[in-house]
Write a structure and sequence with these properties.
The complex is a heterotetramer, with two copies of chain A (222 residues) and two copies of chain B (331 residues).
Chain A lengths: L2 H19 L1 H11 L4 H14 L9 H15 L4 H16 L7 H19 L9 H16 L4 H18 L23 H16 L15
Helix pairs in contact in A: 1-3, 1-9, 2-3, 2-9, 3-4, 4-5, 5-6, 6-7, 7-8, 7-9, 8-9
Chain B lengths: L10 H12 L4 E4 L4 E4 L9 E8 L16 E7 L5 H10 L6 E6 L2 H16 L4 E6 L20 H13 L4 H13 L1 E7 L19 E4 L10 E4 L3 H15 L7 E8 L5 H17 L3 E8 L9 E8 L2 H8 L10
Parallel strand pairs in B: 3-4, 3-5, 5-6, 10-11
Antiparallel strand pairs in B: 1-2, 2-4, 7-8, 7-12, 8-9, 10-12
Helix pairs in contact in B: 2-3, 4-5, 6-7
Classes of the chains: A mainly alpha (222), B alpha/beta (331).
Bound molecules: adenosine-5'-diphosphate (2 copies) and magnesium ion (MG) (4 copies).
One adenosine-5'-diphosphate binds next to helix 3, helix 5, helix 6 and helix 9 of chain D.
Chain lengths: 222, 331, 331, 222
């Protein structure tokens, strides 16, 4: 398997791991002005991804991501199932039958994921959702790579942007999701989805140096 | 957490299992899709009526499956719309020549799951139409583009389309009836306490001893305004004013009035609220033609109430009076 | 105090007023005696069935007045037996040539009020017989001479004598049936939280976050033992063991199983408890022929549950299946 | 009206006043192992006695007490209505058409009240009820009077006994009333009814010197 397939595996695995590890934290964030289910929903879906990790079809990157998308939409309810499922599905469609992924491919896949989320959620930057962290982070990643940065530097920069913009969701009024019903009262609170994106980006960047190490489910046993 | 629960992750399936054991002759339970359906569904001569939503609103909707009500309910986890797959599989299982009616409450998650599930089911040959319930006046359409929420008013939509479909109405007719009920139904809710989702184990929000939350939804999401705790009459008056002026309901109208407990409020208190609401409506020249006092659409163990009005006409009076047999009809 | 209440002293009358407004055609309310009665009672061809008790147990008993159930209920204040005068006046108002049946739960206050009221009513020519309900296994007869308490099992006594009296049974026959139901009915309850009487404004007792009270009654009186909070299955198993071994209920028995919420427990949790109880009984070779899951006899807003078994025979199966129409039958 | 009729009025009025003033206290005592309604029940009944105070038929002491008994049984539910109603009824029966009451009469009336409570409640001293304060207090009153004590001294002694014995109910297991269901757990708690008797006795003794002052309902307005 190409090393860059392993990078895809690493990113997906880190996202899944982060969702499972932060069930309580993400749930508490969603409880402030939402309904508190975000952490639970994400953890229940991604723990199934992790449990079946070794057996996911790895014929090509597209198949791999689409299988994961199906697990997510099959198990995660609420808004997050369709949103995250769509994101993985769209990224997988761009990857298609590739078994290796370039930096440009990665950016294209992320952009497709973003378009999928916007379409599915009828939402955009500024609505106080995960898009408020994800979109600027991907822009930053693309800009750094275009400027010639290596993977580590580009990821570090993207993670920093994700965190800054997640923090900045405090200033926004929620226009989507359960939090939207509280209107002005949502000002001053963090968006749970945006924070999740920031934590995931930080963990992806933080472990990037070692990402060639294979990730097997046996390693995950406590 | 003061709850009857084993593993919080098994809260919903264990509840569904209990419902199934209690109704072996009339209901069928399909664990893979959190599906509770009538044992005699689907029937070739009847549109199947399906409602999905998050769990935690019981009796809505898994306990209102039965003759004259829903043919099936596919709930998600507590406060989470069902995964799209559940909607797809439920729609396929309930497929009939007359089609399937999806009832959904207007929340992003529910709409997404049902849109996607419907698309896939239609691709497999199921005819589906959808009625969206959005009766909550606490949320103003204009300001927040997600629109009003669907809350306790869904009971009336279910009751009306359930009765009509027993009488043989086709899918278009059911959509007409469902949309009509929704268009004359308005609800407003408030909470004295938060609720505690089993998986979270602590209250979703904290309310002081002398505070109440006006305009709460049914997912423990906070309301639009926190106010100083008031007495029962003042609470009714505020809810009623918001609801009556919204449609508006007018002098001479005949209405159904529902006082819906949110899970932790004893029925004694609901009747105190009912009495006030009934009298205040009479003072406004509005007649309560039918009344509903109890729990219809709850928010786990929340102490609180919602007040719903439905403007009645002859068609609705007759549909609401039609018989129904449901899992929780226990006396 | 997180309650829907105006003046706590008006809690009971305002509730009764609400019930009356909600059921104008079927019920009559006599404010002077806290009396809720069927609009068509008394009837010359039917024994009148009357139950009194403290308030705070709704739907018991003011909301189970109706065809096939009670002819009248005369409640006292919250957790207080009705004053003797109420019993006297109610008995007189409900007098019929076939007589009046008093159903009472075995508490000192209730027994005194009904003894005195009956004596005076009989002196005025009313024929009265009494059935005492004492189904609570948490109280051991031998140690405490006041005897077992009457708790949720009273529902089954009401249902059986209510059905039989609709079918024309005379007073002696009703006493036989009532006593028989009581003799095969056993209940045990437990609480996760205390309840808050409106006039007191604070919880009757305090329970720690990790404590529960086994063997509580329905008046917020503490139970026999405080235990460490357990999961739903363990709680059911403990209640079931106490109830099953008391009569005892044996392999081959056909029973009615009631999971009764005490006021603050959502119905979702009650079905989790039901599922476990049903399965545990199956493991003991006991068949659940009828089931009841919901609120029948509460303790204001207490989060808690009671579990009741009734040993069925053909007569009881048919009486329990008979139709009934009550104030809270709302679907 | 004979001065000793005024004494009866004074005692009854003080009992009623005490019940109304101590609604919360008596209720809280009953809440510990009982059901918390004792204070409420007593207050609701005796406030009606006070509200109609001036209009109660005072043809003779027996009539006066029986009218009060009727108000109590007509309004007070729970165990207390029948218990206290019976007590007033029996005391009234002994008083009969007397319009003056001697110290001996008073003791006889109290003894009749006690017998009525025992019969109605199927209870006796030692069951952890108000009888545990009332019976020894009346015995003490009778003994002091027999030994030649004046009213004030006899009442002071009786009140002291009532208080001691009310306190001593802590050691008893409740065998009657709602508290009985808690069995051994009732040990260590005070019986609400016994404490009420002690407080009433203390207030009767405390105001005895001025008891000739007429008690009208207008005086009661806050
Ligand atoms: N319409 C939407 N488009 C994009 N993201 C959304 C949308 N609605 C909610 N989100 C994101 O999902 C998160 C909440 O997810 P979840 O708790 O599963 O949904 P719900 O609001 O239905 O309870 C929010 O914090 C937000 O970041
Ligand atoms: N059988 C009885 N005989 C005499 N006194 C009793 C009896 N039962 C209860 N009491 C007294 O009444 C008090 C409680 O009264 P109340 O709260 O009205 O009754 P209940 O126990 O029915 O709630 C107790 O503290 C006790 O002193
Ligand atoms: Mg959420
Ligand atoms: Mg949700
Ligand atoms: Mg009581
Ligand atoms: Mg009491």
């Amino acid at each position: 398997m190409d090393e860059s397939f392993a990078a895809v595996e690493y990113v997906v695995h880190t996202i899944a791991r982060t969702a499972v590890d932060n069930e309580t934290y993400f749930g508490d964030l969603d409880a402030v002005v939402g309904d508190g289910d975000f952490g639970y929903s994400m953890a229940r879906g991604f723990e199934i991804v992790l449990a079946g990790w070794d057996d996911i079809d790895r014929s090509d990157v597209g198949t791999f991501l689409k299988k994961i998308a199906l697990t997510i939409t099959g198990r995660i309810g609420g808004t997050s199932g369709p949103i995250w499922g769509t994101a993985f599905l769209r990224a997988g469609s761009v990857a298609g039958d590739r078994t290796a992924v370039t930096a440009d491919d990665a950016v294209a896949m992320l952009r497709a994921a973003i378009e999928g989320i916007k379409a599915r959620g009828q939402s955009d930057v500024g609505d106080k959702t995960l898009l408020d962290a994800l979109v600027p982070a991907v822009d930053r990643l693309a800009a750094e790579l275009a400027a010639g940065a290596d993977g580590q530097r580009a990821l570090d920069a993207a993670a920093m942007t994700a965190r800054e913009r997640a923090e900045a969701t405090r200033e926004l009024i929620a226009k989507r999701g359960r939090a939207a019903y509280t209107g002005e009262r949502s000002i001053g609170t963090l968006d749970a989805g945006a924070v999740a994106v920031a934590v995931m980006a930080e963990r992806v960047a933080g472990g990037w140096a070692d990402h060639a190490t294979p990730h097997t489910s046996s390693e995950e046993a406590p | 957490m003061k709850k009857f629960v084993n593993d919080p992750k098994r809260f919903v399936p264990e509840m569904l299992q209990g419902i199934a054991l209690a109704n072996p002759d009339t209901l069928r339970y399909v664990p893979d899709y959190n599906l509770i359906m009538r044992a005699d569904a689907p029937r070739d001569d009847k549109v199947s009526i399906v409602q999905g939503s998050g769990s935690g609103h019981e009796p809505a909707h898994v306990m209102v499956v039965g003759k004259g009500m829903l043919d099936a309910a596919c709930p998600g986890d507590v406060f989470s719309a069902p995964p799209m797959d559940y909607v797809l599989e439920t729609s396929k299982l309930l497929n009939t020549p007359k089609g399937v009616l999806h009832l959904i409450n207007n929340y992003t998650g529910d709409r997404m799951a049902f849109d996607m599930g419907r698309e896939l089911a239609e691709a497999e040959g199921v005819t589906i139409r959808t009625v969206v319930v959005d009766d909550d006046v606490a949320v103003k359409d204009s300001t927040y583009t997600v629109g009003r929420r669907g809350v306790a008013g869904n009971f009336f939509v279910i009751k009306a389309v359930g009765a009509a479909s027993e009488q043989g109405a086709d899918l278009d007719e059911l959509v007409r009836i469902g949309d009509k009920v929704n268009s004359v139904t308005r609800t407003m809710g408030m909470a004295l306490t938060s609720c505690t989702p089993p998986a979270k184990g602590s209250p979703l929000f904290e309310l002081g001893e002398d505070e109440m939350e006006m305009g709460v939804g049914i997912h423990g999401e906070p309301g639009r305004r926190r106010e100083k705790l008031a007495d029962a009459n003042a609470i009714v008056d505020e809810l009623l004013e918001a609801v009556v002026t919204d449609l508006p309901y007018e002098r001479g109208d005949n209405v159904a009035l529902m006082i819906n407990g949110l899970g932790g409020t004893p029925i004694s208190e609901l009747y105190i609220l009912y009495g006030r609401a009934h009298q205040q409506l009479a003072d406004r020249g509005i007649t309560v033609g039918r009344n509903y006092v109890g729990e219809y659409c709850t928010s786990l163990d929340m102490a609180g109430v919602s007040l719903t009005l439905v403007k009645l006409d002859d068609e609705l009076v007759s549909l609401f009076a039609a018989p129904a047999e449901i899992a929780i009809r226990t006396f």
